[in-house]
Every structure is written in structure tokens, then in C-alpha cells.
Design brief:
- By secondary structure, the protein is of the alpha/beta class.
- The protein folds into three domains: 302 residues, Rossmann fold (3-Layer(aba) Sandwich); 179 residues, 3-Layer(aba) Sandwich (Rossmann fold), CATH 3.40.50; 123 residues, Rossmann fold, CATH 3.40.50.
- It contains 25 helices and 20 strands.
- It has a six-stranded parallel sheet with strand order 10-9-11-12-14-13, sandwiched between helices.
- The structure holds thiamine diphosphate, 2-acetamido-2-deoxy-beta-D-glucopyranose (3 copies) and magnesium ion (MG).
């Protein structure tokens, strides 16, 4: 680390004032944390390796602002360090359509993950660090260190109070992720005021107990050398993540310094002026960047970063000569392409094949494709034996020293940490290299991870949730484990595939679409109970999200169902046929995919003229989009043997046939239009 000089202090002041000016211009935002963390930002960023002109270079150091409310700080950095963000953009802070939205968003160049919901960023960073360790262990060879970067995180009191961060950081300690450095803005302030109203725990002891190295900076407001020293020390820690507890003053330099009033409100005009004067800037000017600061970062960070990237390209070219197969695979992944013909490995079923639980069918898919897809990585939140997500030759992702596995392993033991798992797979996905990250748990417990699931959809991380035990069909574990509202919630998320496949071909289709998705996450809901292989299903048809499984001329009713209920509806159609009632059967495994088919196609599945009845052993909310009448469960489930519980709720061929007859009777003589028809 070079000696600190006046230019460092000038740069820190520039960062402070650029951040304050953004918040003042917008008259909205959070100036407190940027003022306190500007020194750390300067010290961390000037030594990072990245190329602002190619922000997705794979071996860059990554930076996560977990206290996303201090986003003005990040925009100041992105501007000063040469990313595609002008002073004009900073002036548009928090305005509609700007490149400087209210919290960091994943799509912006230089923003690694979307943050704002506290606790997520640091948990994503654990995923980034896992991804890096996996890439290094998979592709590095003697003399060819293709991957050797760090993930740096800033986080505040709020992130440390959130449970999701505890889950992820506990796992990071177990995994000995030495490539992770977190800087804790210990300012003892949150929105309610002093942290002494709710947060007295000894964070240091907690992180030490997790297996982290903990370092201190006592005067984070001014001690640049202290921060730099701690950072160097942190980077030496190879088998422990590091938390640097950096004590700062929120709103440092402002008249409101040290108070929660500076957390989330612009500084008063006279306060801004006194701050600028104190820092040696003209109090009447805004958005000022001294040329020396641009020059300093250009010379010390941007140019070396670009040089690192060029050297990396040269190294990769030599690597490609020495290890052509590994290089080709890595290159393919960097291009975001799946291997050709991987889909031919997806299992295909005939109606004569035996009935199998869809969780088992999912295991068969994973077993069939893991070898084709080195980018497939994931695991379960301690439900491996019941969720069936571990392929037979899997190696666990574990620190080599533990004797439990290897960093090149691709099966992650998440422990009972659903929310942490969700945030971690988002981070792995955000790393790049085409990672296809999955996490598994019971469908009902995906709700535990709602915060992370929502961010996957918002950010467009194509992660996969393998969600087994998807209904009352799980039986004796009872209402606590039986999902009811879960799919309605997940289907309400924009940009989310929610699959509930009915048989083997549909499970293959769900994985096919999920793995081909570049920007949409998927939940694949799977049954505990056996499901028959259906006449009329195919991977091709199910990949449309919905299709006519059984067509019949002059039908009296369309019955639409998902997952385990499709087979029962097929039997219900036989009961109805005995009474001379003709029913079409539609399988609708994913609303999201179906909604993206052409209008003609959708109309062919749900035509006018006859009533449509939906059948699903879950909440009926949401089904009115497709059906005139819904048969579902709008109460909590019951404990009992799976088939008995189905009988209890009347989800039998006879019970469904009765609902179908009632529906037909109700609509007799009425004009029936497809619910798909809408004014706009
Ligand atoms: C999950 C979540 N809950 C609540 C909030 C609202 N919120 C934003 S900042 C904040 C307090 C954060 O305190 P701290 O991390 O110490 O930040 P500082 O005030 O020190 O900048 C809260 C509660 C949020 N962004 N995310
Ligand atoms: C909590 O912090 C406030 C503000 O610094 C201080 O006035 C108060 O005495 C503290 N209370 C306790 C119990 O530590
Ligand atoms: C964690 C890790 O891999 N760190 C490496 C980062 O890069 C430097 C050299 O550029 C290596 O010395 C570290 O080992
Ligand atoms: C609902 C269900 O099948 N639960 C099982 C999940 O797996 C665990 C461990 O294998 C079993 O103990 C549960 O009964
Ligand atoms: Mg704080």
C-alpha cells in the first residue's frame, strides 16, 4: 500500500461532497453513511482490480454495498473510477428513468447486486465468494491463476441485525471463505436512534464464533492508514472471511453528525455550506471534482486495472493452448451459452412408464444433466434425503481442509437456512460464468426466503428453487408443512416462473425452460406422492407453460389443473364420460410461460363457448385469470395420510366430477366467453 498523501484526503472530501450534493439536488436520500464511509470507500476502491470500460470482466474484484441506502456513495465511486456514469447522471439521482435510482440496481454497470433490503447484500456476497472459490478450484492450474479475486462488502448495523445475514455469515465461516472482506460501519445509529435501544450484542464475539477473523479500525472517519492496514491484514487471511469493525460517525462533518437525523434526510443548505468550507471547497459550488482526483484514480486504479485485464487475457490465451478443453468450457460459460445438445439428456416418458413422485423425477433430471452442465451448482437447506437434490457422484462444496469435500464440489450443504440459501444462490448467479444455482427446500418454506426470492425476480437472477412436498399430498406432517397460499404469492411476483409439473415430461420441461432462462428465476414445485405418466404430455408441449392434454369434440367443459391434480382430473373425465359429459383436460404447469405464448395459442387452450373449471389443492386466488370457477383450498390443510387428506377435501375423481357438473349446470344457456378476453 502506497503512502498516504494529501491527494487521499482530497479524494475522500470529493467523495463526501459528491454524495451530499446528489442527495441535496434530489432533496431525497441518505447522506449520513456516505459521509462516514467515504474514507473506507476510497481506501478499498483505489486498490481494487477492475476495468470500468469492461465491468463484467470475470476476474474483477467485486464490491457490494449491503447498506444500499447509502447508494449516493456508490454512484460517486462509479463516476470517479471511470464507469459509465456522468456528473449529469449524478444530478439525476432518484429521478424517473435515470441511471441513478434510489437504491443500487443490478443492471447498472459496476453494480454487482441489487441492494436496499438490508441483510441481502452481505448474503449475496457470500454467494459471490462461493462462486469465485468454485471457479478457482475448477479452472486454475499451476502457473495459471485465472481466478483470484476478492469480494468486498460494506454493511451497517441494520444488515447485522437481519437474520438472513446471520444465516449467510455463519455458513461463510464454516466454508472458510478467505476471499470475503466485510467492512462494518459501526456508527451505533439506525433510524430509531441510538442502537442501544435494541442492539447490544457483541458483534465481534458473534463473528468470531462464526469462524471469521475480526479486525478493528477505531477512527474510521479519518484514519486512512488504519483502514488500509486492516484491509491488507484482511486480505492475508486465507481460510477465514474477515469482518473489519470500523467505528465511524454517521454524517461526519455535518452539523448533525452522530445523530439519526442525518441517516435519511438531506443536509440543510447552511450545513452543506459549512461542510464544503470545512473541507476546503467553494461553498457555492456543487458537483465539483478536482482534476487531481480524476488523475489520481486514473493512474492508481483504472490504468492498472485495465492492465490486469490485458494480462489476464494473455494468460487465458496461453491457458487455452495448455488446457484446451478447460479453456473451451470456461469460454463457453463466459459467453453465457449452455453446451449444445444438453437438452437431449432430459428424460422422456411414455404413459406406460411407472408412476413416480415428481421430486424423484426431479432427481432423475439432475442426475441426467449434472455432468453436461458444470455450471450447475446448488444444494438443499438440510432436506437432501427428502428433497432428492444430490446426484450420486456429487462432491460437496466444502473447504478442502475440512475433509468434507472440495471447493470444486458443486453440492452445497446450506444447513437449515432457507433465506440465507436464497440470497446466496442469487449471489452465485450474479457472479457470472453462467452459473445455474439452485436451492432446495419444502415448497412451504420457500416463503421463509421471500425477501431473497423477490430480489431474484427483481434483479433477474435465473436461479432455481427445487420446492418439494408441494401440497396437502405430503400428508401426516400436517398444516404447518402443507402449502396453501404459497403458489398464489409466488405467481404474483413479476418475472417469476412457477412450475408445478404433472409428470416426468413436464418435470423435464420445467428444467428445460428454467435452465435456458437468462433473466427469470424459477420455482419448481414437486410432489412427495407418486404421479402417473400422462397420455398426451410431452416436453415440447409443456415447455409452452400450458397445453391441451386431452381434446374432445363438442366438449361440455374445460378442466384445467396443475401438478398432482392433472392425473386425478383425467380420471374425473372418465367418471364424467360415463355420464355422457365430455371434458377437455388442460395442464397448466407455469402461468408465466403460458402468458407469453401468442394470443391465438392461448385462445386455443382456453376457447370461448364452454365453462372452464380450475382444480388445484392450493389457494384459488389468481385462477380467475383462466377459469370461470375454481376448486381449491382456501383454508389451512389437515394432518393425515396423503390420500386420506385428498379425500377429506374431495379431490377425488368423483369429487372433481361433481364440481364439473355443477359448473356446467350453472353456465347452461349463458354466453360463455373465455376469461382470457379483456379490454386491455
Ligand atoms: C429489510 C429492510 N428493513 C428495513 C429497511 C428500512 N431501513 C433502511 S436503512 C435502515 C436503518 C439502517 O441502519 P444502519 O444499517 O445502521 O444504517 P445507517 O443509519 O448507519 O446508515 C432501515 C431500518 C430496509 N431498507 N430493509
Ligand atoms: C443510549 O444512547 C443515547 C444517545 O447516545 C444516550 O443518551 C443514552 O444514555 C444511552 N442509553 C443507554 C441505556 O446506554
Ligand atoms: C483470495 C485470493 O484468491 N486472493 C488472491 C488475490 O489476488 C492476489 C494476487 O493478485 C493473490 O496473491 C491472492 O492470493
Ligand atoms: C414430509 C416428509 O416427507 N418429510 C420427511 C422429509 O425427510 C425427512 C428426512 O429424510 C423425514 O424425516 C421427513 O419425514
Ligand atoms: Mg448504523
Amino acid at each position: 500500500m502506497k503512502q498516504l498523501t494529501d491527494i487521499d484526503n482530497l479524494a475522500v472530501s470529493t467523495i463526501r461532497l459528491l454524495s451530499v450534493d446528489q442527495v441535496s439536488k434530489a432533496n431525497s436520500g441518505h447522506p449520513g453513511a456516505p459521509l462516514g464511509m467515504a474514507p473506507a470507500a476510497h481506501v478499498v476502491w483505489r486498490q481494487m482490480r477492475f476495468n470500468p470500460k469492461n465491468p463484467t470482466w470475470i476476474n474483477r474484484d467485486r464490491f457490494v454495498l449491503s447498506n444500499g441506502h447509502s447508494v449516493a456513495l456508490l454512484y460517486s465511486l462509479l463516476h470517479l473510477f471511470g464507469f459509465d456514469l456522468t456528473i449529469e447522471d449524478l444530478k439525476q439521482f432518484r429521478q424517473v428513468g435515470s441511471k441513478t435510482p434510489g437504491h443500487p440496481e443490478y443492471e447498472l454497470p459496476g453494480v454487482e447486486v441489487t441492494t436496499g433490503p438490508l441483510g441481502q447484500g452481505v448474503s449475496n456476497a457470500v454467494g459471490l465468494a462461493i462462486a469465485q472459490a468454485n471457479i478457482a478450484a475448477t479452472y486454475n492450474k499451476p502457473g495459471f491463476e485465472l481466478s483470484n479475486n476478492f469480494t468486498y462488502v460494506f454493511l451497517g448495523d441494520g444488515c447485522l441485525q437481519e437474520g438472513v445475514a446471520s444465516e449467510a455469515c455463519s455458513l461463510a465461516g464454516h466454508l472458510q471463505l478467505g476471499n470475503l472482506v466485510a467492512i462494518y460501519d459501526d456508527n451505533r445509529i439506525t433510524i430509531d436512534g441510538n442502537t442501544n435501544v435494541s442492539f447490544d450484542e457483541d458483534v465481534v464475539k458473534r463473528f468470531e464464533a462464526y469462524g471469521w477473523e475480526v479486525l478493528f479500525v477505531n477512527n474510521g472517519d479519518e484514519d486512512l492508514q488504519g483502514i488500509a492496514d486492516a484491509l491488507e491484514q484482511a486480505k492475508k487471511s486465507k481460510d477465514k472471511p474477515t469482518l473489519i469493525k470500523m467505528t465511524t460517525t454517521i454524517g461526519f462533518g455535518s452539523l448533525a453528525a452522530g445523530s439519526h437525523s442525518v441517516h435519511g434526510a438531506p443536509l440543510k443548505a447552511d450545513d452543506v455550506k459549512q461542510l464544503k468550507t470545512k473541507l476546503g471547497f467553494n461553498p457555492d459550488e456543487s458537483f465539483v471534482v478536482p482534476q487531481e482526483v480524476y488523475d489520481y484514480y486514473n493512474k492508481n486504479t483504472i490504468q492498472p486495472g485495465q492492465q490486469y485485464e490485458r494480462e489476464w487475457e494473455e494468460l487465458f490465451a496461453k491457458y487455452a493452448e495448455a488446457y484446451p478443453n478447460e479453456a473451451a468450457e470456461f469460454k463457453r460459460r463466459l459467453e453465457g451459452k449452455l453446451p449444445e445438445n444438453w437438452e437431449s439428456k432430459l428424460p422422456v416418458y411414455k404413459p406406460t412408464d411407472s408412476a413416480v413422485a415428481s421430486r424423484k423425477l426431479s432427481e432423475i433430471v439432475i442426475e441426467s444433466i449434472y455432468n453436461e452442465l458444470p455450471e450447475l451448482i446448488g444444494g438443499s437447506a438440510d432436506l437432501t434425503p427428502s428433497n432428492l437434490t444430490r446426484w450420486s457422484k456429487a462432491v460437496d462444496f466444502q473447504p478442502p481442509a475440512s475433509g468434507l469435500g472440495e471447493f470444486s464440489g458443486r453440492y452445497i450443504r446450506f444447513g437449515v437456512r432457507e433465506h440465507g440459501m436464497g440470497a446466496i444462490i442469487n449471489g452465485i448467479s450474479a457472479y457470472g460464468a453462467n452459473f445455474k444455482a439452485f436451492g432446495a427446500t419444502f415448497l412451504n418454506f420457500v416463503s421463509y426466503a421471500a425477501g431473497a426470492v423477490r430480489l431474484a425476480a427483481l434483479s433477474g437472477h435465473p436461479v432455481i428453487w427445487v420446492a418439494t412436498h408441494d401440497s396437502i399430498g405430503l400428508g401426516e406432517d400436517g398444516p404447518t408443512h402443507q402449502p396453501i397460499e404459497t403458489l398464489a404469492h409466488l405467481r404474483a411476483l413479476p418475472n417469476m416462473h412457477v412450475w408445478r409439473p404433472a409428470d416426468g415430461n413436464e418435470v423435464s420441461a420445467a428444467y428445460r425452460v428454467a435452465l435456458n432462462s437468462k433473466h427469470t428465476p424459477s420455482v419448481i414445485s414437486l410432489s412427495r406422492q407418486n404421479l402417473p405418466q400422462l397420455e398426451g404430455s410431452s416436453i415440447e408441449k409443456a415447455s409452452k407453460g400450458g397445453y391441451v392434454l386431452q381434446e374432445v369434440e363438442n366438449a361440455d367443459i374445460t378442466i384445467v389443473a396443475t401438478g398432482s391434480e392433472v392425473g386425478i382430473c383425467v380420471d374425473a373425465a372418465k367418471v364424467l364420460a360415463n355420464k355422457n359429459i365430455k371434458s377437455r383436460i388442460v395442464s397448466l404447469p407455469d402461468f408465466h410461460t403460458f402468458d407469453r405464448q401468442s394470443e391465438e395459442y392461448r385462445a386455443s387452450v382456453f376457447p370461448d363457448g364452454i365453462p372452464i373449471l380450475s382444480v388445484e389443492v392450493l389457494s384459488t386466488l389468481g385462477w380467475s385469470k383462466y377459469a370461470h370457477q375454481s376448486f381449491g383450498i382456501d383454508r389451512f390443510g389437515v394432518s393425515g395420510k396423503g390420500p386420506e387428506v385428498y379425500k377429506f377435501f374431495n379431490f377425488t375423481p368423483e369429487g372433481i366430477a361433481e364440481k364439473a357438473e355443477k359448473t356446467i349446470t350453472f353456465y347452461k344457456g349463458k354466453t360463455v366467453e373465455s376469461p382470457l378476453k379483456k379490454a386491455f
